[in-house]
Every structure is written in C-alpha cells, then in structure tokens.
Amino acid sequence: MKACILAIGDEIVAGLTTDTNSGFLSQLLRGAGIDVVGYMSVADDETDILRALRRALDDADVVITTGGLGPTADDLTTACVARLANTPLDLHEPSLRAIEERFRSIGVEMPANNRKQALLPRNSEPIPNLSGTAPGFILTLSVDNGGRSVLTLPGVPREMKRMAEETVLPWLVQRAGGGAIVSRVFSTVGLSESRLDEMLAGCMTPSEGRLSFRAAFPRLQARASVTAPSAAEAEARLVLLEGRIRTRLGEHLYAVGDEGIEETVGRLLIESEQTLAVGESCTGGLIGHRVTDVPGSSAYFAGGVIAYSNEAKVSLLGVDPATIEREGAVSEATVMEMARGVRRALGATLGLATSGIAGPGGGSPEKPVGTVCIAVAWEGGEWARRYQLGSRSRSWVKEMTAQIALDRVRRHLAGLSQ
Ligand code: ATP
Ligand code: MG
Q1: Which of 6, 17, 127, 158 to mutate to test the pocket of ligand 1 (most atoms within 8 A of CB)?
Q2: Model pTM?
Q3: Half-sphere exposure of 299 toward its Cβ, with a 13 Å CA cutoff?
Q4: CA–CA separation, 290 vs 288, rounded Å?
Q5: For residue range 21-53, what is the model confidence (pLDDT) as tens digits?
Q6: 4, β-bridge pairs
Q7: Ligand 1 atom closest to residue 153's alpha carbon, by position in its atom list
Q8: Which atom of ligand 1 is nearest to the CA of 75?
C-alpha cells in the first residue's frame, strides 16, 4: 500500500508554521510497513487543494490530509474532498452531539459555525477527535474514481497525533491486509526523553512490536504497538510486552494509559480515603489548577492557599517568622511548616507545599534560579526535599515543580520510598 501526505494551510506554505505533522505521520506509517511515497503542502485554496488531492491520488492508494477541518471560512478540506468524490455533505449527528457536549463541558454555547464541523461527506467513516472539536473522516472513492481513500485529520498536532494512532493506523493496517494493530500508552514521571528511550531500549524486537515516544511536557509517554493477524492475538502479545515494560520502568511508570499524574493522585486519594490541601508559593496555584481539572476532585481536594509573600506564609499557613528569617522562604524547614499549616488550616489528611525560585531573577550562589523545595505532611509524619531544577524558563520551573510535587504525593500514597 502506498500513502501520500498532504499538509493543508496558508501558514504552512507561507513558512510561518513548520509542517511537523507530515513527518510524524510518515514515521507512524513506515513503522507499520506502509510505503510513504511523498508529501505535499498547499494553501487554503479550493483549486489548489483539489489539484493536490488529484495528484496525490494518482501517486498513492491513500492520501492523508492534515489541516483545514476547522469551523471558519478558510477551512476547506471537507468541502474539497466531497467535491472530488462528487458526493454531498450530510450532518453526522453523533459528531454534532460530541462537539456540542465539548462546548457544554466548558460552559460555553456552541457557536453556530461549529456545526459545519459535523458535516461529513456521505458514506464517509468519521474519525473521532477526543482532544478537540473537529472529527476527521475516511472516504473511499468509487471504483470509477479509482477506489482509493482520502483520510482527513485536523491540523492541531496534539489532536492529529491521537487520531492517527488510535483510528487511522489500525484502519490502514487492516486495509493493507496486515491484520489488526493494538497499542497501549505508558505514562511516566521523573525521566527525560532520552532516559526513557534508554530504559526501554531492546525490550522488544521489531517483529514483536514497535515503540514510540510522546513528550508533551510535563507528560512523557511511551506507546507500544503490536500488529498481528487478529486483534485477540495482538492483545495477547501486547500483554507480554506490557509485563516487560512495567519491569523496566518500575516506579517511574505512574499509569498504563494516557492520563495526567493528577488523575493518578486523585484515584489513590479516593482509594485510601484521604484528602489533599496544597500550600503553593512558586507554583502560584498551578497544582490546585491541575488537581481540580480532574472531574470529581471535590471528593478529595480540600483546597489550596497561594502563600506567595512571607507575610501570607506566616498569617495564612502559620509559618514561624523565625524559620523564614533563619532558613529563608525557599528552604526545607519553611516548606515543611507550610505543608503542616495548610493541612491543619483546611482539615485535610495530607498537606503538600512548594516554594522555589522560578526566575529569571532572584537567584543567589547558594540558591540559584530553579532551587525548589517541596514538602508533604500527614498525620504523624512529614517529608521535605530541596531540588535544583536548573533555569530553563519561569513557566518550566513552575510546571516541573508541580509535576514533582504531585509525584511526591503519588509516591506517598502508593507506599513508595521518597
Ligand atoms: P482548527 O479547528 O484549529 O481550525 P484545523 O484542522 O482547521 O483546526 P488548521 O486551522 O489548518 O487546522 O491548523 C490549526 C493549527 O494547527 C495551526 O495554526 C498550526 O499551528 C497547526 N498546524 C496545522 N497544520 C500543521 C502541520 N502540518 N504541522 C504542524 N502544525 C500544524
Ligand atoms: Mg483552521
């Protein structure tokens, strides 16, 4: 089977957006033994898109497009594919409901033009979009038209990748007569991408399965995919590989599946019937934000205090001014008192606190930018530690601190050593 990839968008042709989608898709397809004959890029122009689609369909059995599925007037991909196939657009009710639900969940009424995203060419198969609004679709042209297929994906890389891995790849593998492909995601913490790669190196041969990595800071994941004659066989082989991956990753693996560490922490809190309170200085509410992004977090999240100034640490969290005076606001001693204080103030079973120097200013030789202290306090115990994270950027330090802090709570709840 031969595939051609078509990136659609003015900003790509203008050189304002670098086309990373095509490279991602190419690697994914080649990994599954599908021959990628080439890439094309075109602007948001109906004539150009149609010409490119025709040419791509001359060269390949399947054409995968990215971009131009949005709700606005410059999003032309769906209309062009329908025109090429000489087929009308129908309203796809389940997709419309999914789009409406997505807006409802953020408390916004769906703008009328988003309805356009649920219009799909007749006889096409939708590609669900679980991370955004626009679904993609697969349309196989009539035999007169060559019997070849066009697969459309949105331009936003995060949405496109997930849809490509979860729907497009299995479809292509099956269509290529390669049976079924089954994959699983492993979410990790406390590793760099290269370290993760190293830890998993050689854990499967190319004939057993394929590993890919996805880094969307602060998330770092590995995905194992297995191709087999049937889904059941692929699944059975994947179970075997999962065992090996679990052993290799050990405590760095916080979840099998695509989830944030705040979701794992939430589950562990529910399981152990505990509640969490956070006292945040350098993370400025980021931990509270992430914890409350999880539906149902009211069951275990008591609340948080952003104690940014020394005065707030003293008056709201009961930190002893002498501790700050003696050790500094960024110290194990201060952050320990913050964790203890927020736990008491909010009546939670667990207190978590952060204090650090996010930069770019404020560092000193003893405490350079990226010095961060994290503490966890519970009934009858507490733990604190200082980290030197380095100084990539202010937001990086905040994100990293929140990630490590949530991991400390995970480790505590899972009974792992700190
Ligand atoms: P939307 O609903 O956001 O309009 P869309 O499917 O119409 O989605 P585009 O409008 O074409 O997609 O692109 C949305 C964004 O995705 C672009 O602004 C760009 O940042 C990114 N993007 C689009 N195409 C690519 C590509 N080929 N490589 C990398 N990023 C891309
Ligand atoms: Mg768009």
Answers
A1: 17
A2: 0.72
A3: 14
A4: 5
A5: 999 999 889 878 789 999 999 999 999 999 999
A6: 38, 63
A7: 6
A8: 7
